[in-house]
Write a structure and sequence with these properties.
The protein has 141 residues and is mostly helical. 54% of the residues lie in helices and 6% in strands. The protein folds into 2 domains: 67 residues, Arc Repressor Mutant, subunit A (Orthogonal Bundle), CATH 1.10.10; 46 residues, no CATH class. Helix 5 packs antiparallel against helix 6. The mean pLDDT is 83.
């Protein structure tokens, strides 16, 4: 299985320009990537075998490909205790936590009134308003 790690500045899925955020989303959207980051979030090293078991028996070829990509992205590193997050990997996980909180609110909003949900749900606007106001608009990817 060969895969090319998405890199900023190069075309990636969803973006011909390869903007950094699009390259990151391409990497994170690959099968098993988020699961591996989640399993390594506590700082304890994990061997290939333990990661495979923790990731619901992910196939060895997919696991190898994701570990290679995450190493190339400098988000994980192998060590004596197994694979661990690098400083950049820990920083990424820290930045994913607010997204997780937003996703939980979104899930609750959808569960509360799935059929009657307006397109611009006020609860989601309130949940994301501080971040949206602080960030300048950028061109579409």
């Amino acid at each position: 299985m060969t895969s090319r790690m998405p890199l900023p500045g190069q075309a990636v899925r969803g973006s011909a320009t390869g903007r950094p955020e699009m390259a990151l989303l391409d990497l994170l959207g690959r099968r098993g990537t988020m699961r591996l980051l989640w399993e390594l979030r506590d700082g304890h090293g994990q061997s290939f075998r333990l990661l495979r078991a923790s990731a619901d028996g992910m196939s060895p070829s997919v696991l190898n490909a994701r570990l290679k990509e995450l190493r190339e992205a400098r988000l994980i590193a192998p060590g004596e205790a197994g694979y661990t997050l690098t400083d950049a990997g820990r920083e990424l996980v820290k930045h994913l936590k607010p997204l997780g909180r937003w996703a939980q609110q979104w899930s609750e909003l959808l569960a509360a009134a799935p059929a009657a949900l307006p397109v611009d749900a006020p609860a989601l606007k309130r949940a994301s308003a501080p971040q949206a106001a602080a960030r300048p608009r950028s061109p579409t990817p």
